[in-house]
Specification:
Elements (H helix, E strand, L loop, with lengths): L1 H23 L2 H14 L4 H13 L3 H10 L6 H14 L3 H10 L5 H13 L3 H14 L5 H18 L14 H13 L3 H20 L6 H21 L3 H13 L5 H15 L4 H7 L8 H4 L2 H17 L3 H14 L4 H13 L3 H14 L4 H14 L3 H9 L8 H13 L3 H22 L6 H16 L3 H14 L4 H14 L1 H8 L14 H5 L16 H9 L1 H6 L96 H19 L1
Helix pairs in contact: 1-2, 2-3, 3-4, 3-5, 4-5, 5-6, 5-7, 6-7, 7-8, 8-9, 9-10, 10-11, 11-12, 12-13, 12-14, 13-14, 14-15, 14-17, 17-18, 17-19, 18-19, 19-20, 20-21, 21-22, 22-23, 23-24, 24-25, 25-26, 26-27, 27-28
């Protein structure tokens, strides 16, 4: 009895210690006291519960779950359901957490809160939205703002990943978290400018709320703003402002945020900007996407996009085996997804295996008819790249849901025209027009749609262009029937009938409006002064008073003026017949005998550079060195000297140069004999 009493007293003291440590938040010391209590009584339910709570508070979720699973007889699901589900949630065992919550006999408020978080992680957004609405409706405590934030996060996820048009929840955006989530919702709707304004407001609210705390530094504020700045950069990227986006992404990476999910998303976005350029930077950034815990921070679509980009990067860096391995893994995870097979086909094309790539795409189209259209478009592109235009046309015409589309019709007609297969091009027009006729007949009997009439007109113009007027008549009659006031169509119809049935053309021509009814409202002055006018009439100055009368009076006189006679040469003799070859150059005339030889003119400009030829002045004995120099003629350059006829020293031959040269050569020869 005394031992039991002592044990009870010790336990009471330990419980007091546990209570005091719990209030102070010292769960490590509380855990020690709880362990001592369990040594006294190992099946104490309260002590086991306290131990689980202490372990959770210390972050030891795995150990806490171990305690729960070890003492299942004592710690039943009714007693410990929330703690068990929370440990499973924190250990990323989301499916197990959901089962634990659903198996609980009583759904407490704590379990409902956790249930909402679990549904969000499982991306069951509709159920999650309903859970948070119920919580907000039935709860009144200090956590109401957090619940509204979570609710707005669910709406943002629906808008982003499921493209659901969100309903207005009437949430007052008083915090930066609510403002940020609202911006994400707008991004999902494609309202990028509005989203950017919301993010700027969120940044302002974040700075205001954090600056109120004196313990928060500027670095802490920038770290908190990192996710907002990352979303801003994403909007810039979507708007095509890639340089600004890249700069902001790199600034965030330099801050080294602790959120591995944020870093992975930013690294992925930088890789998408780099594409096949700057691959070394992309290979560095891809390491950030492989960080531990990333898979628990991002949605399935985000993780899938990262894996796709890894495969593309492997292709761009010529890692063919790695590219095939990644794309095959992606295809096994999502067999119906297009991108893995497209990446595999692109890799085969880089290896010049076009036929194999087309075969791969064809197999996928056969296995997944729902996605066959996009795959066949890629197959047609590959055939065109190989020069097989006709085969590409056959593939495109096999896409039934696109045969009637104007873009498809235009592409097929252009390709068939390039191959000079006019019959096939006309057949494409005919099939598309028939589709619209059948589709319209099954709905209403009203006027034909604009697309239908446009196709008929294009078909008629195409047939007329290629000389198929007989075939164009039915299309033109249909167009004229729809709009009898269309003069252009009527003129085309008459032109076509003129070669087939002239009488019919005459009958139809009666429907053409008369020339009197046609009023051509053309401003001649504006037309002449237009940018494309080849002739522009000079603008005459305004005439007033007498000048105007004179101008009018002289109008008749100006018209009667004759042209002036051409001027005759001064030596013209009317008695002499003009030379009939006077218009020909002298060298081409029949009487030209060439220049006479022997008469040398002054060789002006001939000789070595910088010298002038010697004239008669050199032979004049009176002009010797002893005679005084003559003064320069008026108007001549003052810098010209009396010795201007002398050849410059550089070009002047020294006297007796030939003889000297011979002597030098003889000396060299004599010296050469002795030298060799």
């Amino acid at each position: 009895k005394m031992a039991a009493a002592a044990g009870a007293a010790a336990a009471a003291g330990l419980w007091s210690e546990v209570n005091r440590c719990g209030q102070n938040g010292d769960f490590a010391r509380a855990l020690k006291s709880v362990n001592k209590i369990l040594q006294i009584n190992k099946d104490d339910v309260t002590a086991l519960q306290c131990k689980v709570v202490c372990l959770i508070q210390n972050g030891n979720f795995k150990e806490a779950l171990g305690v729960i699973n070890t003492h299942t007889k004592v710690l039943t699901s009714d007693v410990i359901a929330f703690e068990k589900a929370y440990c499973e949630y924190r250990l990323n065992r989301i499916e197990s957490a959901l089962k634990t919550i659903q198996s609980a006999s009583q759904q407490t408020d704590k379990l409902k809160e956790l249930y909402g978080q679990v549904l969000y992680r499982l991306e069951r957004y509709d159920d999650c939205l309903a859970a948070y609405r119920d919580l907000i409706r039935n709860s009144q405590d200090e956590y109401e703002e957090e619940r509204k934030t979570n609710l707005s996060a669910v709406v943002a996820a629906q808008s982003t990943w499921e493209k659901v048009v969100p309903e207005d929840l009437g949430l007052r955006e008083a915090t930066y978290e609510l403002c940020y989530n609202s911006a994400c919702t707008l991004i999902g709707q494609g309202k990028l400018n509005e989203a950017m304004k919301k993010l700027q407001k969120a940044e302002e609210l974040c700075r205001q709320s954090l600056s109120e705390d004196s313990d928060v530094t500027e670095e802490d504020i920038e770290a908190e703003l990192a996710i907002i700045h990352g979303q801003m950069a994403y909007i810039m990227q979507l708007q095509g402002r890639t340089e600004d986006a890249l700069q902001l992404y790199n600034q965030i990476i330099k801050l080294k945020p602790t959120d591995v999910g944020l870093l992975a998303v930013i690294a992925n976005n930088i890789i998408t900007i780099n594409k096949d350029q700057n691959v070394f930077d992309s290979k560095k950034k891809v390491k950030l996407t492989n960080a531990e815990g990333v898979e628990h921070k991002l949605s399935k679509k985000q993780l899938q996009a990262i894996e796709f980009n890894k495969a593309l990067l492997a292709m761009y860096t010529n890692q063919a085996d790695q590219c095939r391995k990644l794309s095959a893994s992606l295809q096994s995870q999502s067999p119906e997804h297009l991108l893995p097979v497209l990446i595999q086909a692109a890799q085969l094309c880089r290896e010049k295996q076009h036929a194999k790539a087309v075969g791969l795409l064809q197999d996928f189209a056969d296995q997944h008819p729902a996605n066959a259209a996009e795959i066949k478009l890629t197959m047609a592109q590959l055939k065109i790249a190989q020069g097989s235009v006709t085969k590409a046309c056959m593939i495109l015409r096999s896409i039934e849901e696109l045969q009637h589309k104007p873009g498809m019709v235009s592409a097929l007609v252009t390709m068939y025209s390039h191959e000079e297969d006019i019959d096939s091009a006309i057949e494409v027009f005919t099939q598309a027009i028939q589709w619209y006729q059948q589709h319209q007949a099954s709905q209403t009997r009203g006027p034909k749609s604009t697309v239908h009439l446009s196709l008929i007109r294009e078909a008629a113009n195409f047939k007329l262009k290629h000389g198929r007027k007989k075939e164009a008549i039915s299309d033109l009659e249909e167009l004229w029937k729809q709009n009898p006031k269309d003069v252009h169509t009527l003129a085309q119809l008459i032109s076509a009938y003129s070669l087939v049935d002239p009488e019919k053309a005459k009958v139809l021509s009666k429907h053409l409006p008369s020339s009197d009814t046609l009023s051509l409202k053309v401003d001649v002055d504006a037309l002449e002064n237009s940018h494309g006018a080849t002739y522009v009439r000079k603008k005459a100055g305004k005439l007033t008073g007498d000048n105007q009368q004179k101008e009018q009076g002289q109008g008749e006189v100006k018209k009667k003026k004759k042209k002036k006679k051409g001027k005759l040469p001064k030596n013209y003799d009317p008695k002499v017949t003009p030379d009939p070859e006077r218009w020909l150059p002298m060298r081409e005339r029949s009487y030209y005998r060439g220049r006479k030889k022997g008469k040398k003119k002054d060789q002006v400009g001939k000789g070595t550079q910088g010298s002038t030829t010697t004239g008669s002045s050199e032979l004049d004995a009176s002009r010797t060195a002893s005679s005084p120099p003559t003064s320069p003629r008026p108007g001549s350059g003052a810098a010209v000297s009396a010795t201007s006829n002398v050849i410059p020293p550089r070009h002047q031959k020294p006297a007796g140069a030939p003889a000297t040269k011979k002597k030098q050569q003889q000396k060299k020869k004599k010296g050469a004999k002795g030298g060799w």
